[in-house]
Structures are given as structure tokens and as C-alpha cells.
Amino acid sequence: MTDQASYDQFRVRGPVSLRGVVKISGAKNAALAAMCASLLTDEDVVLSNVPAISDATDIAELITRIGGAGSQEQGGALRLSGRGVHSTEAPKDLIKRNRASFQVMGPLLARHGHAACPMPGGDSIGQRPIDVHIDGFRALGAEVDWSGDRWVASAPRGLRGAQIFMDYPSVSGTQNVLMAAVLAKGHSVIANAATEPEVRDLAELLRVMGANISGIGTQWIEVEGVPALRGAAWSVMPDRIEAGTFAAAAAATSGTVRIEGAPIASMEAPLAKIAAAGATVTRDGEAIAIGPGRSPLDAIHLQALPYPGLPTDLQAQMTAMLTQAKGESHIFERVFDNRLLYVDELRKMGADITVAQTRSAAVVRGPTRLHGTRVFALDVRAGAAVLLAALVAEGTTVIEDIYHLDRGYERLEEKLRGLGVEVERVHGV
Ligand code: EPU
Is 176 in the pocket of ligand 1 (CB under 6 A)? Predict the structure, then answer.
């Protein structure tokens, strides 16, 4: 995030019915983990389909700041490796602004027997503990202590395989501990592992790098440690959250949109819910066609859950969509404990939404005619929700703090314009 970007805003003119074709970029949460995995080897890991988003720039900067190699190929692929790493201390500024960067801890610990990381920052969407990561490293034989301003992990004689039970199937916890386990001596089991496709994508990359992993994509991952990993060429999976965001936007605006290159097999939940709300959803090879169906949409109930449930990263966008549905929709957020903060922003635009005292459930009454006003992108997905609302709102919506959107959505305004949206980025002063 540059200072300038922190003041950028979007001005979106609505209402608009989306029309056209959109091509899906590489998955943010798979790409960030894959970049961290490059620290596991001195050989080159060449990653294609890494989205050009600021979160990826942050991780690339982290890798090079601690001495690792990083360059961009013609055509956009990233060439990364752990060759030259001279520090196992992750820089505080990067870890604070980009939570995913805590995932350098597993690879550094596994390769160098030492890693230090401040407590990661990140979006305000609820508690973001890291006990699952720490417990996993300890199970693998590392000594891990909080030194007052950072976590310090050390295993001078190397990690050893272990039976690891995760209290919660944390996505980045599974990725971090898996990256540590691949170089541990002996056999490891990660029980209650996260099954998100982004975990699977990382595990498959690690396998191409020479790791011995079975149970990929299940809650029970087994690893036979190997002494070293090699370089690899890998194409990051497409972003199911970006695809789901465009699908919800198409449905909310009664649009006709072809979403190309989406990971359809891992999108059962959002596509089922969008179809249940009444939009037409057609799967066509690697493309999803969303078309108008019932107008207005119908109210539905939805719950954000770990995969294969509806992703929490689409909960806000689906709620914005449901402001256009007839009746009462009930939303349950079951992954994070405070991920409904964006509701206040939607309310400024005229949405009729009540949040329960528990802050983990909401009732949306619709359809409501939304109106443009000034709102804030509170985090990457909250930003997507207000953007989606701006498409159906009458008049101009000014979305502040769009650096959050830049963290997770590649070439967003270009893609929106391709679908007929009048959107302008106004640079801050
Ligand atoms: N949790 C624990 N202990 C831990 C870690 C997590 O109890 O040690 C709990 C959290 O409190 C939370 C739940 O587990 O209630 C889920 O957290 P998880 O660790 O799975 O999330 P994460 O790995 O920090 C990733 C994505 C998020 C996405 C979540 C859930 C990355 C970089 N981030 O976060 O993505 O919401 O998984 O799917 O992979 C986003 O893209 O907008 C985003 C926030």
C-alpha cells in the first residue's frame, strides 16, 4: 500500500446491469502461500497466474528484504527462491499490514531452524489468533516463545515429524504447519486440517517441489519429511472468491455475465445459493454463465462455514446481493466473530439490515432501492460488498479506502468497465 493508494477512491455510477465477459485472475490466498513456499528451496520456484495485487507485492518485498531472490519474468511470472536468505526475522511493517506474510514462519523455521515474526495484523473481521500455527510448530519440536514483540521459534537440530491435531481447521495455519512439516525428519499427520482449495493448491505445489504428502484436500494430511525440496514451475489456481464476487454482482444487477476461467468444481456453495436466490446459473466447461432469472430475487438463508460450506470471503457480497431479494434473508457468519461491520456501510445506502447482538447473524429485508452516497471499504470483502451495492444504487457512490480492494482484486476497474460499469478511480492528494 502506497501513501497515495491509501487515499484513492472509486466513484461508481449506478444503477447498471452487468453485461459481458470477465476473466478470473489467480487466487490471492493460494498465491500468497505459494510465494512463501519458495523459501523452502534454493532453486527457482516460477509462479505464474499470481494476481497483480498489493498483498502479493508485500510478500515479494518480504522475501527479498530477508535476502531471498525475487524477480518478475516477461509475461508476469514470478521467479522466487530462498537462495541468499540472510535473515530469519520477518520485517515488522510487512507482517503488520499483511497477515498472510506470517506464513514465512513455517518455511524459515523448517529450512533455517529459526524464525521470528511479530504478531500479524490484518483486517478487522474478528479475532485472528495464531495458536494453531504455534501449536503445530511446537508439536514438530520447535521451541516457540513470545518475546514481548514477536514470536521466536527455534529448532537448532531440525524439526521432527509429529501427530498434530488442529483445534480449528485454520487455512493459513494448515498451510504454515504443512510447509514446516515437509522438511521435518519423519512422518507427520495433520488432523483436522483445513480443506480449502487454496490449501490443496499449496500442497500440490509442494508435491511438485518434491514433498511427500498424501491426503491432499482432506482433513487428514500425512507427510513423510524429505531432506530438501527443489524448484518448480507452478500456475496458481484461479480465484473462486473473485469469481463468486462477479457472480453475485451479476445476479444482484439482473445481469448477463460469462465468468471465464473460474474454478467451478470448488464453487458449489456460492453457485447453489445464487441459483436458489433465483438467478440463472449455467456451468459451461470452465465458464459460468449468470443470467437473469426471477425478478426480484428471492430471499434465502445462508451460513458462512469452512469449505465446502459457503466461504466467509463471499458472505458480505452475498448479503449485498440479498438487499435486492424479496423477503427476509438470514445470514449466519460462523467463521469469524465480527465480520458484519460492513452492514453499517450498506445501511448508509438505504439497505434494511439488522445485525443480531451476537454480531454473527443478520437479517436482510428486501428488495430495497439503494442510493449512492459516500461509504468506506472496511476490508477487502467489505469493499466488494459496497461496490456491489453501488452497482444497484441510484446515483454516484463514492467508495473510500479502496486500497483494501487493491489488496485482493486484480485490475478491478478495468474488469468492471468491461462489464459496462461507469467507474472512476480518483487519486488522493
Ligand atoms: N483460528 C483459530 N486459531 C488459529 C487460527 C485461526 O482459532 O490459530 C480461527 C479464527 O479465529 C477464525 C477461523 O479460525 O475464527 C478462521 O481463520 P483462518 O485461520 O482459517 O483464517 P486465515 O488463515 O487467517 C484465510 C484467508 C482469509 C479467509 C480465511 C477463512 C489468507 C491469507 N486469508 O485467513 O481471507 O477469510 O482463511 O477462509 O489465506 C480474504 O481473502 O478476504 C481473507 C480474509
Answer: no
Q: How far apart are CA 176 and CA 180, in angstroms?
A: 6
Closest C-alpha among 68, 58, 66, 7 to residue 32: 58
Check pocket membership of 332 for ligand 1, CB cut-off 6 A.
no
Q: How do 301-304 and 325-333 pair as beta strands?
A: parallel
Does the CB atom of residue 133 touch ligand 1 within 6 A?
Answer: yes
- 33 near 99, Cβ under 8 Å? no
Q: Residue 12 — pLDDT band, cuts 50, 70, 90?
A: very high
Rg over CA atoms, the chain: 21
Distance from Cα 128 to the centre of ligand 1, integer Å: 7
pLDDT at 287 over 50: yes
Please report, as a single letter, which amino acid is at residue 134: I
Residue 277 corresponds to which amino acid? A
What is the distance between the alpha carbons of residues 347 and 149, in angstroms, rounded to a whole number?
A: 39
Task: Determine the Cα–Cα distance for residues 35 and 79; give it in Å rounded to an integer.
Answer: 9
Cα(315)–Cα(104) distance, rounded to whole angstroms? Answer: 28
Identity of residue 92: K
- C-beta 130 within 6 A of ligand 1: yes
CA-proximal residue: ligand 1, atom 24 (nearest)? 172
Read off the pTM.
0.97
The C-alpha atoms of residue 232 and residue 265 are separated, in whole angstroms, by 25
